[in-house]
Amino acid sequence: MLTVYTFDLGEQLLMAQKTIVELVDDLDGGKADESLTFSLDGVEYAIDLSAKNAGKLRDALAQFVGHAQRVGGRKQRGAGTRTPVKAGGDKAQNQAIREWARSQGKQISDRGRIPAELIAEFQAAHA
């Protein structure tokens, strides 16, 4: 929907535009509440869905997502909630993870990124 306003100020004509975007559910044609993206076989898809249909999609994929390995991307947050993340994490924490890994007979370098799987194992062991 496009609304155009004109204002006559003598010789000058000012115009303002207001554009309203309405999402339409790609499944049932109703009002969509969100746009979702997902990938399958190397192809990325986007779909606009109502909260009800988005829930159905999430439920349908939940079993597969629960057994899948994340390979990229981040979970989306609401607008304005981004928190900067310090690369490499806390030095003391990294050292503790390395010491724990070695005590478990795992090979790990003295420097560099610690594999996410190893961090998860450490956290599970210390929960």
UniProtKB/TrEMBL annotation:
Record GO terms (molecular function): acyltransferase activity; DNA binding
Map out region (Disordered) in residue numbers.
71-93
Q: Write out the entry's keywords from A to Z.
A: DNA-binding
Domain of life the protein comes from:
Bacteria
Stretches assigned to the Lsr2 DNA-binding domain: 90-125
User: Does the record carry DNA-binding as a key word?
Assistant: yes
In terms of InterPro entries, this protein maps to: E3-bd_dom_sf (IPR036625), Lsr2-like_dimerization (IPR042261), Lsr2_dim_dom (IPR024412), Lsr2_DNA-bd (IPR055370)
Q: Which residues form the Lsr2 dimerization domain?
A: 15-72
Name of the protein this chain belongs to: Lsr2 protein
What phylogenetic lineage does the species belong to? Bacteria, Bacillati, Actinomycetota, Actinomycetes, Pseudonocardiales
